[in-house]
Amino acid sequence: MQPSLWLALAGAGVLISFTPGAGAINTMSNSLNSGFRRSIWGILGQQAALVVHIVIVALGVGVLVASSPVAFNVIRYAGAAYLVFLGIQQFRHKPDLDQEKAAELRNEPASSMFRRGLWVNLLNPKAIVFFLAFMPQFIRPENPLVPQYLVLSATVIVIDILVMWFFFAAAATTFQRFTHDARGQRILNRTFGVLFMAVGVMLALIH
């Protein structure tokens, strides 16, 4: 990939990563509940889903999904329902000032955080449609395809990890002061719950 084309790709990747969405909300929620360092597991789960989307598009299956209203809607509504489910769980989560239980929450298994991040991004068919429009801009069919896809994937994933961890996860740490009393916890739980549900509803309604 030519340096000028790669710079354009990197710039586009930064803009995409900074666009708030379900992944950003999930990252901030993980950082708030489990700490900045451990939030990386949810971010890695989101990147695994990103790899799946890229592979699907690269293999041409993305065209099939994007052109099939039934397949697209099944995935879209499943993703929306999952986000709303996460939002309801977060919204209904009761404030907990018990230090032992708080420690348990902060020690949520990495595998659980990874799986949640995976499903949050995986059940978003709009990502497939987006990559269908995005990837061809940076792929030159006259050149070997595999190296180009590898460069594109690595660039997008590294940028997304950096933005998610050092911007969204770090930003969530500023809310830590609200977790020391029941009222603050209730406000944060309901705020993130509403955000999750809002993204889910938007995913279901916006075409």
Automatic annotation (TrEMBL):
UniProt subcellular location: Cell membrane
PANTHER family: ARGININE EXPORTER PROTEIN ARGO, HOMOSERINE_HOMOSERINE LACTONE EFFLUX PROTEIN
Membrane topology: Multi-pass membrane protein
Keywords: Cell membrane, Membrane, Transmembrane, Transmembrane helix
Coiled-coil intervals, chain numbering: none
Keyword RNA-binding among record annotations: no
Protein name (record): Homoserine/homoserine lactone efflux protein
Annotated transmembrane regions: 48-66, 118-139, 151-175, 187-206
InterPro entries according to UniProt: LeuE-type
Organism listed in the record: Arthrobacter ginsengisoli
